[in-house]
Design goal:
This protein is α/β, with parallel strands linked by helices. Helices cover 41% and strands 16% of the residues. It holds the Pfam family Methyltransf_16.
Length: 346
């Protein structure tokens, strides 16, 4: 009985996490059905209304009215389509948000606020040293305007899961991320006890959004440092001053024009011989790069350029699988992400 209760509580926790992460409505409804054996019971509907929607509407953080309205509509239609009783409050809240939506949007057409919850499975040894992590993020929807650096990509989710699954690799280390986007990986590194985190990006608008996200997560400048770093202008003297132990990157292999600059930066960083050591690698620093191979030609170009620059690339996706810390995120295709371990061949 206790196990069933724990499972049910975990299911509801996942449902709320999906709502806060702005999971697509269809994914949210599927998860809601799974929570109580396939139906949108009154219990599930009340949970969605009271602990998801009402909490969001009355929170101090701006909620995304378009998303909330869409979720309410999907829940009502799904319940009605199976002749289930629809909780009256759902209709009332849907009507209120529809009437007031133009006043509460407040620029959300360009920015959305998400909370990404990393949930450790029951009984894992990691729970003894780490707790569930909830990361607050402002992300951009305006990708067609070139605002990709402020978006949340699958590789950053995967790399964050990896960091949280293997905390000993990064605790008490100086960690340097290349192309840090919204700053999610940096928050994960701080959570596992990295002694210092350096986040970099070559887009100044991304840096501003990243700084805002770090403040949302109560991370101070003495713990996490943000640095403007256009790859094409980076110098060895500039990079060596950080005295980093390890290098990380998520979704940074995407543009063939940027590949030579990225390779040059990785070479300079990995030649720095930080203290990030393994039994089989007693001297060289190591980089962990997570990527989705969207264009095979670009990825192969990166591999070839890396070999010419004396970089060793090993795919460790299968050997060092992270825990599934985002079980509620049905839209996240973790199988599409590859994790590469890169070192410099002296």
């Amino acid at each position: 009985m206790a196990l069933l209760q724990d499972t049910k509580s975990h299911n509801f926790l996942c449902l709320k996490a999906a709502f806060l992460a702005l999971e697509p409505a269809n994914c949210f409804i599927s998860l809601a059905r799974q929570t109580c054996g396939g139906s949108l019971s009154e219990e599930v509907q009340n949970f969605i209304l009271e602990l998801c929607v009402e909490n969001s509407v009355h929170s101090d953080i701006l909620f995304n009215s378009t998303y909330v309205k869409n979720i309410l509509k999907k829940v009502i239609v799904a319940a009605e389509s199976t002749c289930e009783v629809v909780v009256e409050g759902l209709y009332e809240r849907f009507a209120k948000i529809s009437a007031l939506q133009e006043y509460v949007m407040r620029g959300e057409e360009n920015k959305i606020f998400k909370k990404i919850s990393f949930l450790f499975p029951f009984g894992t040894s990691h729970q003894s040293c780490l707790t569930n992590l909830v990361v607050s993020l402002h992300c951009s929807l305006n990708l067609l305007e070139g605002d990709t650096g402020c978006a949340l990509w699958p590789s950053s989710l995967f790399l964050s899961e990896f960091i949280l699954s293997y905390p000993k690799l990064f605790s008490e280390k100086v960690c340097f991320e290349v192309g840090s986007g919204v700053g999610l990986v940096g928050v994960a590194l701080a959570h596992v006890g990295a002694s210092k985190v350096i986040l970099t990006d070559g887009d100044r608008s991304s840096l501003g959004n990243m700084q805002h996200n770090l403040e949302l997560n109560h991370l101070t400048s003495d713990k996490v440092h943000i640095q403007y770093l256009p790859w094409e202008y980076a110098t060895e003297i500039e990079l060596s001053k950080y005295k980093h132990d390890c290098v990380l990157g998520a979704d940074i292999i995407y543009d063939p024009k940027c590949v030579p600059h990225l390779i040059r930066v990785l070479c300079m960083l990995l030649k720095s011989k930080g203290g990030f050591m393994f039994a089989e690698e007693t001297e060289a620093s190591v980089a962990y790069i997570a990527t989705v191979i969207r264009n095979k030609e670009t990825f192969n170009y990166f591999i070839g350029a890396a070999e010419e620059a004396h970089l060793s690339i090993v795919d460790v996706t299968e050997n060092q699988q992270p825990l599934n810390l985002l079980p509620y995120m049905l839209s996240y295709d973790r199988a599409s992400v590859r994790l590469c371990k890169i070192s410099y061949l002296f």
